[in-house]
Every structure is written in structure tokens, then in C-alpha cells.
Amino acid sequence: MTKNVKFNKKTIFKTTTALTSLIGAVLLFNQTANAAPTTSAGTMAVTTSVGAVCSVTATELAFGAFANSGSVANSSTGGIISTNCSTALVHTLKVTESSVSGAYTMITGDGVAAEKKITFRLYTAANATGTQLSENVAFATATGSAESANVATIFGQIAASQSGKEAGSYTKSIALSVTYGS
After folding, report:
1. With pLDDT > 70 as the criterion, what percentage of the chain qualifies?
2. What are φ and ψ of residue 124, in 5° steps?
3. What CA dihedral angle connects 157, 159, 160 and 165, to 10 degrees?
4. How far apart are CA 12 and CA 21, in angstroms?
């Protein structure tokens, strides 16, 4: 029986040692889990840049119904030219569409035959008054306000001696440019 007691004491010692280690680990873990969190602070830079920018838009320049009688026809409304440029940005507007001696041609259909073409000119004022516009002629200078602003109005006049035109809708797209910066 003495042998069993020694064995039992040995077993009890090992079990006690294991339990003590286990309880120590639990207590250590519990202390680490309950420890106050540490906070570090830093900063983040937030940046942007605003470049000089301009855009140009225009409303339609309308002639209305063309009489097809060979007489001069002035546009019924002018095309309003607007720019949207960065604040305080000085800019200049130009017609950049190529012309033939200052004349432009609207077409209908394929626009090949003469009866499918109507020529016209552009001006800075109604009834062909003001400056006649053609490619690279500056017609307005403005200063940006960071919002869309009406800068100029362009008018048109269909030249005389144009009759016998084919029925249809005649169109022409006119290229404009806005120059800004240095």
C-alpha cells in the first residue's frame, strides 16, 4: 500500500503543478486582456490643386424659314456664346472653323449639288453689322467667374442671290475656341 501512496503523491504533485501552471496562464491572459488600450496619434495630409480651366458652349444660331427668293436673310436669333472658366482667368473667344473668304456653307442631304448648299456669314451684331467673323478672328475677351457666363452673341446673314434651294433642313457646325492662360 505504501507503493500506491507514493504513486498517488507523485500523481497529485504532477496534477497540482499542471493546474498551477494553467491557473497562472489564465490569470496572465486575463490581465493582458483587461489592460488599458494604448492609443497613438498621427496626421493625414489632404491636398488638391485647381488648374486653370475654361470651356465654351453656344446656343443655336437660327435663321428661321428661308424664303428661297434670292434676297438677304438675317438670323432670327443670335447664338449665345458662354464660357465657364476658373475665377479671374482672362480668356479670348475665336471662331476656329475654316471659311472661304469669310463665308460658311450649310448643307442638306449629301450637300454635293449647289441646290443643297446655302452660304452665310457670321457677325458680332444683328443685320450684318459689327465685325465679320471668320477663322481665328477674336470676337470677345472676358474674365472667368467660376460659373457659366454669357460672353457674346454671334449673328448670321445668308447672302443674296441664293434661290432654287432644295427643301430640307440645312445645318453647319461652327468650331469655336477659348484661349486662356499665358
Report:
1. 80
2. -85, -5
3. -100
4. 14
- What's this model's pTM, rounded to 2 decimal places? 0.73
Rounded to whole angstroms, the Cα distance separating 7 from 11 reads: 6
Comparing C-alpha atoms, which of 51, 76, 50, 55 is closest to residue 151?
A: 55
H or E element, residue 54? strand 54-58
Tell me phi and psi for residue 134, to 5 degrees.
Answer: -150, -175
- The alpha-carbon radius of gyration of the chain (Å, integer) is 42
Residue 103, C-alpha cell as written in the block: 463665308
pLDDT tens digits for range 125-161: 999 999 999 998 999 999 999 899 999 999 999 999 9
Which residue type does 130 have?
Answer: G
E strand or H helix at 115: none
DSSP letter for 41, please.
-
